[in-house]
Amino acid sequence: MPSSSNRNNPENRFVYQEFGNGNSAAFERATPDLPPEKQNVRVQATRAGRKGKTVTVITGFQTNQETLQALLKQLKTQCGTGGTIKENELEIQGDHKQKILELLIKLGYKAKISGG
Question: Which residue ranges does the record assign to the SUI1 domain (predicted)?
Fold first, then answer.
């Protein structure tokens, strides 16, 4: 008979498990790491949900987090402003559509401006 401390441990409690030993890393969605020339990237300036502050949002990346971090750092340096990564999208503070578009094209991305 199992001890009560082992039975009440939340890590050992599961109702049903079909395969394996519960390795959650196997269930994470793999992000394809495509080269820049195969990625269709969109650049858009928006104020929606940001209390009137304009940010430039770059979407459509199909690459890993490390590449996005390096690209974000490069774009922030070139624009002289701050930025962040949210859900595989880059957000750069301010309206820098043209400058970012030129930089992305120079880096080999297929970039376009979207929205007004």
Answer: 50-108
